[in-house]
Amino acid sequence: MKCVAVLVPLATLLVVSCNRPPTTAPALPAEHYIPDPNSVAFDIETIAAGNAATNWLASYSGGGKVARFRIEVGPAPSEVTGQANETQFTAGRGSLLAEPGSDATVFLADLAKALKAKSLPKHVQHLSSLAFDYVNLGEHESQAPNGNGGFFDVPMGNWSLMKVFVGKDGDCEFFLNMNPVIKKGRISMKDEDYGDCTVAALAKVL
To answer: Cα–Cα distance between 128 and 45 in angstroms, integer?
Structure first.
């Protein structure tokens, strides 16, 4: 009788456990690009590379013109300490690379408007590549729903955020954000004082 008394509760426990619905992690909300007036978005496709860098083929269509360029972001071997609350950020180097047949006329005009550049560059010396330094500001971020250009940790998203330094001695800054899931990249204004130098630098490879 003692055996029966032990086995019956165990059997009941097993039946209850088996009938309990499985728990699942809550699904992340579907992402879509949210435009803002100080950014220009473009399409990206991840491309294979024979090195440790991450590579994307970027394109921007507008006014019958298509701008094409590649973005290569190397690994971030170093850490830098943020000024606020000693936050640690990773830093590295990357490149923007020119693509044959690109016509960036409209792209540059839209960038100039979003970045508050006062004029478009003239007599541009075109380059095959433009190196840059970057600081990684966050991973798995989601866009602010109000269209102010901000990002949040919660809910999680698929945006990677970078601050990029170009120009002589890296004295020109802008934000470069990438989301390979929705296949969107974005160039955003860091400060309107950098508008002219950012557009001038990008015009060399776009």
So the answer is: 20
